[in-house]
Sequence to fold (503 residues):
Amino acid sequence: MDAKDVILGNYIKELAKEGKREDSRGSMDFRDLKISRGVIDHAEGSAQADLGATKVLAGVKLVPEEAYEDTPDQGNLVVSAELLPLAAAEYETGPPSPEAIELGRVVDRAIRAGNCIDLKSLLLEEGKAWTVYVDVYVLNFDGNLFDASVIAAMSAILDAKVPEYADGKADYTKREKKLKVDNVISSTTFAKIGNAILLDPTGNEELGMDARLTISTDGKMIRAMQKGLGGSFSVDEVESLIAESLKKHSHMEKKIRG
Amino acid sequence: MGSSSNKPQLIVDGKRLDGRDFNELRSLKIEAGILANANGSAYLEWGNNKVLAAVYGPKEATPRHLADTSKAIIKCRYSMAPFSSMGDHGRSGPNRRAIEISKVTKEVFENVVMLEEFPGSEIEIFIEILQSDGGTRAAGITAAAVALANAGIHVKDMVYAVSAGRIDEHVVIDVNMIEDNYSDADMPVAISPKDNSVLLLQMDGGFTKEQFSEAMKMILESGKVISKVQRTALERLYENAEKGA
Fold:
């Protein structure tokens, strides 16, 4: 963190003490969310989520592969995330950072534990099934990559169509059938700044953030959680944030479904 | 969290496969100060988990650009031995899972270590899983907390970690490998016992709001037992040292 970031972080902390945010939002408000679907024709499914100035593109590809030995009757799901070097001055080329790996794994667990895709519908023949690759591309960073990535990934999955399959090969020119989606999850990420807790932190707010909690839900159950950074939450705080996350779900699900 | 196909019966007559009650921990043993070269160390056996933790430092932070002039930095490496699992030979080197666990473990200790006492320094925490049977990140954190205390590094609290889960409609504590493979939820948590603040929280599967609260209660209750084993390990070490003197 350079000097400018420290000053900005302190400014955010002072604002939070007074119950304020830099963009005058309420503590439990999301920024404006815009979802664009089908932005990459070559992908089986795609969506870009713009959450404030944070921009995340997710693409879905389906590839016929061997079914995993321990799940021979279903398809595979592979989710990963990349912090592109063009998305922020701090992001560099090279092997994925721990932050990128954490992001990819948290989105993976949310989609997987949410039973979003009917993996059983992806079996092609004995021992062979579609592998669904969901690649999350961070295009511009302005905080809260977790929610923007889950929203983009979920929207891209809902957008995806399954290619035809004949003679052991996929025909990517023929894609009519929708990928079978059983469950839609949403995600809420909270930043703890001093004693304040704010939904959907901006990049500046993340500079002042002591701890972070991401909760994804299908509206009935919590499907995945991840706490991050050196700060802490009380058990009461976690319980009230779970309630907030469940409350936000139906509105977010509508937006994701489009 | 594994596939639910071919799910074995994990609960028979109100008991778990290894005979435990829902709120019962596996046996836990910790020995402190077992590696001569490290500034602090601990060996832990928790059920069939066998874990070594060692702490080096505080020492000059390297490479220098990582140094923070206002406080020490923590480096953490969680690693599983290639022979630690039943079945497959694990690939050597850190995989994506290990990198994520190393990151969240580091964040746990950033909360409690008095980092401002050692500006420009680094404290290295190494966690080696020699044998794994579910709940290894919790076991690693619990062992590393003892190793840090053994290193004489000032901490605000001795943290512990344990995993809660759900099998069918039952919330259970200290999930082992076979339960983890087929469970309906898994939630490793690290707690600072002085105020029960939550330092690590990960979860996947499915919990209702009520099941989460029940799991948290179980974690805080079992934490009393875990904390006692941690303290006893340190007390035993210093009692032995006095006898030797």
